[in-house]
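Sample intake sheet
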Amino acid sequence: MAEFQRGRVKEGGSKVSSTISDRHRPNLLFIFADQMRGMAMGCAGDPNVQTPNLDRLAEEGTIFVRAYANAPVCTPSRAIMLTGKYPLTTKVVANDLPLPENERTIGEILRDAGYRTGYIGKWHLDGVPRNKFTPPGPRRHGFEFWAAWNCAHDYFHGKVFRDTPEPILLTGYEPAAQTDIALDFLRQHDGRPFALFLSWGPPHDPYHQVPENFKRLYDPEKLELRPNFREPQSSSLPLSEEDRKVGLRGCIANYYAHITALDEQVGRLMRALDEMGIAENTIVVFTSDHGDMLGSQGMLKKQQPWEESISVPLIIRWKGQVPTGRVSEKLISLVDLAPTLLSMMGLEVPPDMEGVDLKEHVLGGQGPEINSVFLMDLV
């Protein structure tokens, strides 16, 4: 990431001194995109993309610029985030494999601790077919409120299931409609701590399925491509017909358009927390399940050991607890998120979680660090 420096804030930032014991049990708003590489934000130094709300979130918290997906493909990565375990342990080693019902997730732990839990958006942990209904019960892994779809990337014809097998059609751009549901969930806050996981499908392809007002922000010919960009040699790119029509530069422009569209939704969520008076006691996490090559090294999509595929955005904000305006260059990976968040929330980390509890570093103190990240892709 050395070539991308614009927009970064300095290492260090302002350290806070209060401890979790001084506060009420925090809420958790965990937002994650799909296939968004870690360097694709203004605050991470990307010279092309417009992300004012994510940049503000980073200024109000800490951005981790060496955050990595342990298995850079959708289903294994999602299982990693929720369980704090590696794919060889959970047996979720490839896309479309179900997360076993006996694998305990952060959702189940928080529900059992008295949290009001919710999951909105792409799930991709219930096997095949991808349009199957996930009924209330153990296959939802602790999430009580449910407005999700196993897997579909059709951003103007989105659907969710609630508690019956009749799909509910979403209107407009899918992430905006999912954010509407998330805002309704937040506004029903009754004083009980909540943990809401919001999973958006973009900027995963199809890249062209993004509102026109965001497309107009990006001229493909004016993009500054990464130094390792090379046009893939294959004459039959693994893209939709519409994406192939605009070429790879057009796809990259639309990728950025998706990210700016998601950034707008981040702003809506942050304003809601402020208006409700709960921003101070809500941990906000923004990340992704993996990145996207987008022509770097002459490759597309994910499942590669290169930075563009394995690097993910990671911003954590907890006002008064997480240092503000800090760029952390310490290693962290998705397997570390569940144990770290549980520890931050004052809950015991299950001994079978394989990730490292990095709470002390996240909160600006001294504690365990990792000097390597385990990466795998079996399929």
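Comment: The mean pLDDT is 93. The domain at 28-362 is CATH 3.40.720.10 (Alkaline Phosphatase, subunit A).
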